[in-house]
């Protein structure tokens, strides 16, 4: 929604004197009283200037509810003031929509309110001037901008969360489809961010409001059920409360006891995850015990366990091992009156501050520097990880996907060999652990020990595991890791490494393919002039030669067409005749170890010594086949889609090939054939067994050999075994 043009071009004099007709709204008067309790008078005056500026800028704009638009920025600022944020943040909250919804520019905000305030507003503004291919891409790019602005200044996300909370509180006036979309977005992105920053009250309210607007009927049904249960269980709550108030003083514990009711969304999620009915969710009520110090926390748990029997496995110590967002408490579940489970949280007053306000405690409770500095350090580490994700993610949608993965609560705590604790997402593997320690450790990971024993890299880590990563200098990520890693950082860094490696390999291969394609034109790559290259790049809108080589190596461009265009451009410069005598192109030599840019076909398993041919597959580079592979017959009709290739001499590489062995079904025949293969110095990768008509059995071995001569030696060793009737190389089969 855009406002009509407004006259806001002249700087506001300082101190600002509003026109006589200008009267602050009642909402702003309430805000002014709130901020005056902790800000200096001159700061309050600057915030009042921002209010009048914002009100003028939004003149003529209205919310969907019919209220003047200025009521929204004022409400957001009031929410931010509850965290005692500074004057710059409060001014940015009042101005957070002026760049997006009016003609005000960042330069103007800088001139009037200072650079930091303008930067905060810019971080909060959407990228509405840029055209995107889809709504999803636009949304992802906006989140990327916001999260990266948050990484440099945490106040950005605090203002944004307050903005979202007020929008969710007033969502009733929005049409149902849009309401559900905004509720889903809040549940998937904003609520988890609030949780990750430790803003517990905000997190719960965003969840409740999202659930209410996304599933209104379910919310109403559960809300009525909770109200009914509240009356039925009042006696239970009263009994537990009386028991706690009587027992704790007997142990010399001075405590504040609070009863609390589980949120409706929490009950709903428990019902869905555990497939329960509402009547089966017994722990709707819980208790919070706030004590003076840490020793009292553990003493309180002892008193509670003496009063009611604890449920085994339900005690959690988040004081010794805090959550990633700084949350600390002791949790225990007790069997209360009538056999009903009762959850109790025990914490100190300082822990309670952090649990309720998270990173906002930095502004609210500056007297608690010890716990807040630790929380600030954890938050800083997470924000730095966002910047790492950004550098490793090529597209905004990919970045958003990785951030979403990391936003869900971390519940697995593991130890490094030095005894440091790392918090990871449940289901994480040693590969996730390696990337959490350092990107280079992850990229060079080859094996791991968990609790001193070697385990596969795909193993799931458990609470308390001690993990040691074994690295190798020349190792690299395996694409298969993407199928089981859980953390966003690991996924982003693996993809980034593979893309970079593939790009480099594709460039090298593309140069060789183009050089081969230029030979029939009597040219080599080194003879193509700068003029010819510049003309080719300009005509096709390409920025650099490297992009052309990469496209050739990945099969996105055909070498014969690029070579023809370059030859034509070269002819125009040199004045050569268009028709030249063709020369043989020759074959491109490959080693079979080029990586992602050159793949050996799985259908026929080519090895050195075979006559080979390569298909150019779009986006995947070259796929090398044996000359008589049935798959090749389908490619020969399109000359531009396949090229002649040959083997470059190689001594240090083994190649996979399959052999088919028909044997008489005798005891120990598999062991004898495997021994013969081993004696011929070949590695066995796997073996399958098929029974034909008795007494014959077919064994198919996938083995590694150096070349055709090595394969022939293997076949000779196998053929002399008494039980073997026939042995041959496995032929390719094309599925129809």
UniProtKB/TrEMBL annotation:
Domain ACT, chain residue ranges per copy: 658-732
Any Gene Ontology CC annotation: plasma membrane
Pfam family, one: TGS
Keywords associated with the record: Hydrolase
Segments forming domain TGS: 410-471
Domain HD: 69-168
Keyword check for Hydrolase: yes
Taxonomy, superkingdom: Bacteria
Gene Ontology molecular function: any one: GTP diphosphokinase activity
Gene Ontology BP annotations: guanosine tetraphosphate metabolic process; nucleobase-containing small molecule interconversion; response to starvation
Family under the similarity heading: Belongs to the relA/spoT family.
Function noted in UniProt: In eubacteria ppGpp (guanosine 3'-diphosphate 5'-diphosphate) is a mediator of the stringent response that coordinates a variety of cellular activities in response to changes in nutritional abundance.
Name of the protein in its database record: Bifunctional (P)ppGpp synthetase/guanosine-3',5'-bis(Diphosphate) 3'-pyrophosphohydrolase
